[in-house]
Task: structure prediction
Amino acid sequence: MKYSSKHIGGKYLKLLYKGKAKNVYEIDEETVLIEFRDDITAMDGKKKSELKGKGELNAKISAKLFEVIEKRGIETHYIKFEEPNKIYAKKVEIVPVEVICRNIATGSLVRRYPFKDGTELKKPIVEFCLKSDEFHDPMINEDIAEALGIANGEELKKMKEITLKVNDVLKRFLIERGIILVDFKLEFGRFNNKLLVADEISPDTCRFWDAETREVMDKDRFRKDMGSVLEYYKEVARRVL
Ligand code: 5GP
Result:
């Protein structure tokens, strides 16, 4: 067996990409199988650990949230869930831009700008960042994205529009389940001349707070050594699934 392949469901699949928490295997020219691993990282990959069962929880939560937004007419790379920790997805060309959407000021926003931590924003803030651990995901604008040749102005505009729609849909879905969608990060992929929401939507990529207690239910528990990371991911899954 080659290092870059894996025996899954009776077949050897080629490993196309190994990220910090996911492996992407090739199914055919248009399809991939994404495996959510138990690895958890922070600080541009410098802080690392493994949480047994996290991959399964994130795959399930992501699958559900992709289904929720697809139902509301938002196109994503998601095809179907595969037990216990995988999803089939369209083979997209990932745009190396992280689109961040915020409803409450916290995290890097309050470290960089004079917002008071925990204040609700009158309208959502959308930021574009370059996906680059080496450069610590710096914020970019249309001119920088175009000059780097990674996306054009029209694509950024479309990504912002889709992100705000995802925010509306998920905010509503989650609050009904006692979860505040504080902020989140999306990635997009190009597929047949369209931009699809790609990657994952999970407690690794979103900030989720309990609506009653404002308890942190996401990766900030790992980033800030708050403990009980998996327990809170399980609680998110229990409420969302
Ligand atoms: P912040 O900029 O405050 O650190 O993050 C804003 C939101 O985007 C948070 O929900 C955070 O989880 C998500 N986010 C931003 N950058 C990254 C990243 O590089 N990886 C992951 N997994 N999430 C990110």
